[in-house]
Specification:
Keywords: Membrane, Transmembrane, Transmembrane helix. About 15% of the residues lie in helices and about 30% in strands. By secondary structure, the protein is α+β, with helices and mostly antiparallel strands.
Length: about 300
């Protein structure tokens, strides 16, 4: 399994700081989704003879908002949404009841689980699980997809969630030790060497690339005297939002490929643009923008 494929399986997460800021800024105006409504829909589908997922939410007292909701479809695929991170034991129980051999741990701020806790699995099936991703329109919370059919005997899905909404997912085999809390190292700011290119003051300011074809976008980039590299995206099944990078290449892709966003490569302490644009592309056109989990305008206001 390549490093890029392993990212899709859950070893790494791709987080763009600017995108997170835009999402956080807009989340206060977004209505919270209540899994209770999903339960009603599921019940109605069953009554009509339609195969539906069974939602099993656990609710903390006081707020009425579900801490988490776990569902399993007829094919053995489990979907989990998590909003309150404190009831790790309850979430572990729900996942195991639905066929996921899981251990979920909650770590307070400034703490982490002592490593190693067990043997890491390297040959992870590509579709076993995908990296946890933010719930669209919500400031806090994670969601993910897990295919219970792909676990081998003796394997354990270890999901660690921190108070500061950090998360890690590791597949282990054999015995897994308990989470012994130790002091976490001081967090280091990790800034990717690229940023959005289509907002004000950037290389492609005033030009929207999302959902256009490569054949439409590249001439505009070249007209501005910029170079292009292509980020080949890998999407989770169903395109719920979020993606991995299969590879980055200079070789052109088909002119009919879809562009979802553009990033400018930067360098140095002043974040100086290098004149290179990363186009995030897929060969097929999809029903929603995987970079934003939906329309770009729902995350980045028009004119930004």
């Amino acid at each position: 399994m390549t490093t890029s494929e392993r990212r899709l399986a859950g070893f790494e997460e791709r987080q763009l700081a600017e995108l997170k800021e835009h999402i956080a800024a807009r989340s206060t105006a977004a209505p919270a989704r209540r899994p209770r409504g999903r339960l009603l829909l599921a019940a109605a589908a069953v009554a009509a003879g339609v195969c539906a997922a069974v939602a099993i939410p656990a609710v903390f007292g006081g707020g009425g908002e579900s801490a988490y909701a776990v569902t399993r479809d007829a094919n053995g695929v489990v979907y989990a949404e998590l909003r309150d991170f404190r009831d790790a034991a309850g979430l572990s129980d729900q996942l195991r009841r639905l066929g996921v051999p899981a251990i979920v741990d909650y770590t307070p701020e400034g703490k982490m689980c002592r490593e190693p806790r067990g043997k890491h699995v390297e040959d992870i099936p590509r579709d076993l699980y995908h990296v946890p991703e933010s719930i669209p329109g919500e400031k806090h919370g994670w969601r993910m997809r897990i295919d219970t059919r792909l676990f081998k005997p003796g394997q354990t899905f270890v999901w660690t969630i921190g108070k500061n909404t950090s998360t890690s997912t590791i597949l282990m085999e054999g015995p897994v030790g308990p989470c012994e809390l130790v002091d976490a190292p001081e967090p280091k700011e990790i800034r990717p060497p690229y940023r959005l290119a289509t907002t004000k003051g950037r290389s492609l300011a005033g030009y929207r690339v999302d959902e256009k074809t490569v054949g439409e976008v590249v001439p505009e980039i070249e007209k501005r005297g910029l170079k292009v590299v292509y980020v080949i995206m890998a999407l989770p099944p169903g395109n719920p939002g979020g993606f991995g990078e299969l590879r980055v290449q200079k070789a052109p892709v088909g002119e009919d490929w879809t562009v979802w966003e553009a990033e400018e490569v930067i360098e140095g302490p002043e974040d100086t643009p290098t004149g290179v644009i990363r186009l995030l592309v897929t060969k097929e056109h999809h029903d929603r923008n995987p970079v934003y989990g939906g329309p770009r305008d729902a995350v980045i206001p028009e004119g930004s």
